[in-house]
Design brief:
Shape: elongated
Number of strands: 0
Order of helices and strands: HHHH
Helix content: 55-70%
Number of helices: 4
Structural class: mainly alpha
């Protein structure tokens, strides 16, 4: 049996709110099912935010896949140099 309001749609949020919640959503860190539904509703209706979410998903998958690999020596050197500069300040 359903009651009044059972067929309501998730509240609307804007792109700024969706993007602010995007990383927590993609990492599965949004604990509230209603908040998750609101974000998913926005992503299903906003091409720009949906594209950004897909790009972030792909990037995360690629980073996870390469996490076990060692960075090239040139990158390691550049990072070491940058970190040393921050340590000097």
């Amino acid at each position: 049996m359903t009651g009044p309001g059972d067929d309501k749609t998730p509240e609307e949020i804007g792109c700024l709110e969706a993007i602010e919640s995007l990383y927590a959503y993609l990492d599965g860190e949004v604990g509230d099912p209603d908040a998750t539904a609101v974000i998913e509703h926005h992503l299903s209706h906003c091409r720009s935010c949906c594209s950004r979410a897909e790009m972030e998903r792909a990037l995360t998958q690629r980073l996870r896949a390469s996490a076990g690999q060692q960075a090239p020596a040139s990158l390691q050197h550049r990072l070491h140099t940058l970190l040393a500069k921050f340590g000097e300040e």
